[in-house]
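JOB MANIFEST
job_type = single_chain_structure
chain_count = 1
residues = 1427
[input]
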Amino acid sequence: MLLKLSRYILMDTFGPSLAWNLFRFYNCDREVHLPKIRISPLKVAQHKVKPFLLRRVLRLLRNMGVLSEAQQSKAASLLKKQMFKPRKTPLKPEVEQSAGPGPGAAAGRVGEQRAAAAHQVGTAPLRALPRPAAPRRRRCRPSLAGPCPEIAAHLAPWRPGSDTRRAAVVGRGAALRLESSAAFHSLVIRDGGRLVFADRPHGPPITLRARYILIHDGGELHIGSERCPYGSRATISLYGRAAEGAAVEGFGQKFVGVGRGGVLELHGRRPRSWTLLDKTLHPGGLRHGPYSSEKRWGSRGLNLRVLDAGTARVLAAGRFDTHLQPGECRRLRAFLALQAPGRVVAAAVGDSAARSLTLETRLLLRDRLGSRYIARLGYRQPWALVGILGGDQLSAAEDKREYHGNGTTGLAVAQRDFLTYDGTRFTVTAFSGWIKGVPHNGFKVEVSKGIILHLVDEVTSWLPGDRIVVASTDYSMHQAEEFNLLPCPECKSNQVKIDGSPLYLHVGEVIDGVDMRAEVGLLTRNILIQGEMEDSCYGQNQCQFFSFDTFGGHIKILRNFSSVHMSGVELKNMGQQILGSYPVHFHLAEDVDERGGYERPTYLDNLAIHHCFSRCVAIHGTHGLLVKDTIGYDTLGHCFFLEDGTEQRNTFYHNLGLLTRSGTILPSDRNEAMCLAIRSHVYGNYVPVPSTDCMAVSTFWIANPNNNLIENAAAGAQDVGIWYLFHRVPTGQSEGQYPEGQAEHTPLGVFYNNRVHSNFKAGLFIGKGVKTTRASAEDPREYLTVDNARFHPHQDADPDKPRVPAVIDGLIAFKNNDHGAWARGGDIIFRNSGFSDNGIGLTLASDGTFPTDEGSSLEVTRSIFVGESSNFGSQGGQNSYWGKGANGEYRTLPRNKTFPIRGFQIYDGPVRMAKCTFKKFTPTVDRYSSAIGFFMKNSWQISPQNNVSQILMEQSVGLKVFFGRSGQWFGNNDNDGDKMSIFHDLDGSVTGYPDTFIGRADNYLLRHPGCLTVPSWNGVLCTGKFAQLYIQARRPENLTLSIARAAYHSYPLRLQGVNRGAPYQQYQPVVMLEQAYIIQWDGRAPEDIILYPINFNRGDWLRVALCYPRETIFQVVADIYQRRTGMVHSIKHYLAAPSRASALNGTGERLFYFDRASGYLFVHLQAHEARKGHSYCSQQGCERIKIMAHMYPGDARSCDPNPFPERPAAAQRPVSQHPAGLCRACGAPQVAITSTPSVKYIRIQIQSLGRADIQTHLTSAFIKINDTVFLFNSRGIFFVVLDACSGAVVSRRHFDTVTGENAASAITDYVQTFIKERSLVLVCSRDIADVVGSSEMSVFTRLGSAKPIVFHKEGSFAMLGYKGQAKPSWIKVLNHAGYQKSASLQHYVPLKLKEYQCPANADKLLKFAFSQNRSEHISAAAAAAGD
């Protein structure tokens, strides 16, 4: 009714257009900028509508943000007289609907009855909450769910005061507005009672303290509402020590509990929960970090520091003993002569500098630095100066003190502020003096008056005094840093100023094509629920693991509640190291959305859960919950947690979890020390194995695949960011709710655009489960210990129905110590993903190898892999390894300095990779680094069906493939899987040779004369047809198998097999088809052998000779084994053939031949049935030959090496002598993988050259835009201009700064006149000289430089600028002197940002520009040279 009325009033008052613009954003679930009303809202009051309805419409407009408080009050004042006129007819009493039948439920109450009942508020004995089963019903919206619950007319004011002995009850007929702080022993709201917090924005905050708050049987607690967020500050503070007082059944202690029929509506202001950095935050806020140096003794003389005023970087330092060493003055003058004019010079006296300081040197310092005091500097006189080299006295800050011989002079302090090219204001300080007879001098370089953060989104809802956290963008999660916000009138809407200085690097850009921007989360909300804590750990609170109190508060919601919604709430010091006591815990609540009868589906929105002691949000036996825009920071145990494996249809949308530490509750929560110490639930004397039983704490612990993860960030956990695991059967209180194995076959929900980084074990892990049986003698491990399980999604979770591929769409994984992502099972598809700086980018461990999940496979496509990116990281914050990268610069490293980095790791199979790009995988003297690698120390098989296609290896890839070598990490590199590593290069995009198999160099089962060896890979490239021979051997089961191809019988491969001690020993060599193979053993031959032709197509064959004792008697049978059903059919017995030739002639007869002279049994192994897709067997089942040998005791045999006729290796098709050509469609189609997939990026590289580079025979400076290169071979300054909306090149210009007349004027005219608005401007230089016509170029401020540019003679200059009304955060300026490394920059620039104000047709232009770029790949060298 209110909505319809609002439409009518808005249409009539403001006109259809404006009314629609306002009304369409009503109750919008995203932040919008509503237009402000320009027509006086007082016209609303002129409508002939009842005044109380008009007032509600006005409030609606205010809550929508289109009326100011002043406008609201003016309009409301006109209504007062009408609102309080005597009514002609009395109002009918409002009837409140009950929540439903059952004990304690509120019956209907009218206004008169409420008055008669008065307020049931007093004391009551503590009692357990009744838990009757209730039928499914429709949950209606509570009566106070609408706007501004505190203004409801029926609420009575309540100021109960403080009495911690009082057990307060708000019960039948009570409807109260809490208007002041209060404290109780406990508060129970029941039987239809209501408690609403008063909203007084200008009054004192309200704090409610209690040991617990229990809401049930129609009780309601409201702070704000969804449409009228609470505007004041409210705190619920839960107090009490562990074991202090009785626990409430079903809830425990120190809690807010919601039982059957309860209503909990908490709605604070909803500021932006979290965003991303949009500009890199450097340590100290400066690109090269802060600088600090302080000396006492040992620094006698003049101490100098020289800085670049454009970057705040300290370029040179020197100490000159001008007190005792006369020659030091000459060295000082030479030092200053080397420095470029315009440099910042800071000087300070240490001890004394006067005795040998010559007049010539004093005059030089006066004239070059603008010093007023240096000419009269005396013995031990403190003096400090900060000035500009070549500047005058007005440009210098200078201070001195007099030395009187008493040992204390105070400090002479000189300070001056400067501005970097990117607009950061910094202070340079020099000081000198004597304190208690000790000389002091030093220097500081630091940001002035607070550091400003540039963020991706608008954050005007973040206020001074709020607290934020900036996530780590390095390997250690402990580099996350907290800051308070300062007032910042100069900040733009996407900027905030922080109090304090960052210790670590926090990346704020896309690097090497992968989005590594740090998450920035707001920890402050205006509604706070907190636990009151002791100063340290006490009692039985796991104090052996924690030094701090872990007995916090908790919120617990049981099934059949009436309504629970929380938004804009901060939770601090919540959770307990006790099972079931978590910051927010939905306990066996079942369906909490429409399916459960809730008209308003349950949600948690915009919560800040931080510094908590047990998880963040626990979803237990609950389905359909929305968790949105919620932060979980610095918590113990799994953060966002699904408990029993039954939880489905829950959605995690745009949540941030970081600094997830280990806890004690479950084995999977525990670290190594906890795992070994907590053994109360193991069987007997079992000692847990931490690496396999425990050590799995995760930010998102997803125990059922049918849940949705969309746009979340797991930004640092002790073990894993996001872990999908699979309960073989439901556990805990959900036992028996689904049949065995269902979770493993359940299709994956939506996984889209999630980020995982700074995790120790893995960013994303798909695989494993938990032990679902109690500890016993058979399996002494603790219940819920990490266990094996594999993911095989099928339609309706039925393995007999079609597969449903699990799609991981848009994963960003960087700076994870071990794995970016690991996936075990099938079918799983990764696409549109980015992996950078991980120990191993992605491991696909397909479960589609015999004898597991036939037909399954794994795939990665349209993705980017980076080995060592330009994110060098920071030392400290528990980063363990710091060493040289491939480019020679120091950086943080994963796992260990020597750990072999791999981009894509192949394990088992079949796995596929297509349309992927690899960058920066280059070995160093310390470690191997390869784009493609294999699981190390692999005892299992690898499928020859593994394949790659359309792969782009950029020039920065120094090692494309590596098969390992004996040594650290690889061990002996002699396990079965190590030897059998293989994949198929379908199109030659990796090897350069199409249809080529790549195997290990020493694997002669694959070799033939046409193969090519690649020593650096330890690999060999071969053509041919390859499959697998799966061998099962029994009696005995512990033999080493030796297999050789007859053509290379001198190079046998020895396989240990797997499953030692099991009924069968299994061996799985990869073999070349249509060849002869020899099999021997290191002992007496097995009595039972089964040979399976795996991955054979119909008609494929092998000839096999097996060594046996001379008197062996054989029974050989062929059959087809159907794995899923266990049925065997098509049984056929082999007959003994009269000769080897007849047995091996391949006529189709089932024959074997045993040559007693040589001791070899000969069989022809051939596939007779068709195979489909990725299946390793035919559709009828797995064909096999069973050999049963009867051998006499003690009968052993040593066979000759080769029973086949000696022939040279068959001439297979040689590797092509014509390598594959340029693949224009290879590589990821995206320039960059980012968290904003709708934003297109271009890759910009600018390389300038200085005079020193020219002298070392470097000839061309260049600008590269994606794949288009502009080379510059002339001296001067070069501009390339792009349209910021489409990315199209619109202009190029060269300016000769040597012979050109008035180059400065020409550049100024070009920038101001010819470059259009909304332009990206790329500038580079080659052998730059003084720019004729100007000492400084102020025109570059028009392109985003914070100050004019002064070029360095023989130096280099590079700029990424923008001309337009905005000043994007990606603007970069490098201005290097001749002795510095040449200016070079790379950046990924977003196109068509909102701040560019692009025209409506920009989408078409953008699409056209990108299609042109992808198709042309042109070099613009010739065109550029002619400009």
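[summary]
The chain has 16 helices and 88 strands.
Residues 575 and 582 are 4 Å apart (CA to CA).
exit_status = 0
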